[in-house]
Amino acid sequence: MKTKPLSQDPGSKRYAYRVNKEENRKELKHVKIDETTLPKKSNGKKSSLMELPKKRFYRQRAHSNPFSDHQLEYPKSPSDMDWSRLYPYYKDESTGKMTNKVTIADIGCGFGGLLIDLSPKFPQDLILGMEIRVQVTNYVEDRIIALRNNNVTKQGYQNINVLRGNAMKFLPNFFEKGQLNKMFFCFPDPHFKQRKHKARIVTTTLLSEYAYVLKEGEGVVYTITDVEDLHLWMVKHLEAHPLFERLDEEWEKNDECVQIMRNATEEGKKVERKKGAKYIACFRRISNPEIII
Ligand SMILES: C[S@@+](CC[C@H](N)C(=O)[O-])C[C@H]1O[C@@H](n2cnc3c(N)ncnc32)[C@H](O)[C@@H]1O
């Protein structure tokens, strides 16, 4: 007889953990976390610390097919997106409008390390991780809920959040033209086999979408990988695209985000532990060329 995976076996620790976290997530995911939402201890007093989620309880397959229909929810257009559900702290209660916009996106954010390290460095920016895998997204949501809760007095981590989504399909549904200042592609899935290259997150068609959502003349695409072949592929496609130009090593050396992305993400840390190579390439979204009639 086939046994159920631990995540579906009501007697397992993983099942109980997930159920508990899901209840917590449902309750706190969209609310503004402040002193009133702090969890109660068994003695009825408010406790200030919430345990950070444990990665081992969120295991799932390493890859998710970016071409399958994941029944994802996405807005019809950016104006239909209610960002206050992800960043309630930035909703102006008197006007009902958001005070800040999402300007930084971490595509395929994995377990969220980059979001967390960027958060205090960019307090005026809302930072969004987009992640296709359900359990990984749940982990990042739980991590952010706990961090917001544990840093409630200094309003920490209110400017980061994660969305389950397929960045290869719906980016223009979420972001207006020119909305983003920075897009990160940290250790994207390499899809080694030639017939799988079309699943890579950097292709000519997708670059045109990234150029659309990035700020003209200013937006930057950051890439980092430990796979040389993928690095060369990303550089080749970005260099061939008419709306991107490569930033030089001097620029990389002086850019704060390049330093952060080297070691902030979980993959980056793994590569560091194994003393593997890290290949970086950054590109500016240049201004649209003038059309001369
Ligand atoms: C190798 S991991 C890197 C994660 C993270 N950036 C890091 O450096 O630790 C690649 C991540 O991209 C996610 N991903 C792959 N294709 C995606 C897509 N089309 N949209 C959103 N996320 C995607 C995967 O689920 C995975 O978590």
From TrEMBL:
- Segments for region (Disordered): 1-51
Q: Which UniProt keywords apply?
A: Methyltransferase, Nucleus, RNA-binding, S-adenosyl-L-methionine, Transferase, tRNA processing, tRNA-binding
- Residue ranges annotated as compositionally biased, kind Basic and acidic residues, are 19-38
Q: Where does S-adenosyl-L-methionine bind?
A: 108, 131-132, 166-167, 186, 265-267
Gene3D superfamilies assigned to the protein according to its UniProt record, in alphabetical order: Vaccinia Virus protein VP39
- The protein's Enzyme Commission number: 2.1.1.33
Q: Name one GO molecular function term.
A: tRNA (guanine(46)-N7)-methyltransferase activity
Kindly tell me the pathway this chain contributes to.
tRNA modification; N(7)-methylguanine-tRNA biosynthesis
Q: Polar residues: which segments have biased composition? A: 1-10
Q: Does the keyword Methyltransferase apply?
A: yes
Q: Which reaction does it catalyse?
A: guanosine(46) in tRNA + S-adenosyl-L-methionine = N(7)-methylguanosine(46) in tRNA + S-adenosyl-L-homocysteine
Function field: Catalyzes the formation of N(7)-methylguanine at position 46 (m7G46) in tRNA.
Q: Which family does it belong to?
A: Belongs to the class I-like SAM-binding methyltransferase superfamily. TrmB family.
The record describes its quaternary structure and partners as: Forms a complex with TRM82.
NCBIfam families reported in the protein's UniProt record = tRNA (guanosine(46)-N7)-methyltransferase TrmB
Q: What protein is this chain from?
A: tRNA (guanine-N(7)-)-methyltransferase
Taxon lineage: Eukaryota, Fungi, Dikarya, Ascomycota, Saccharomycotina
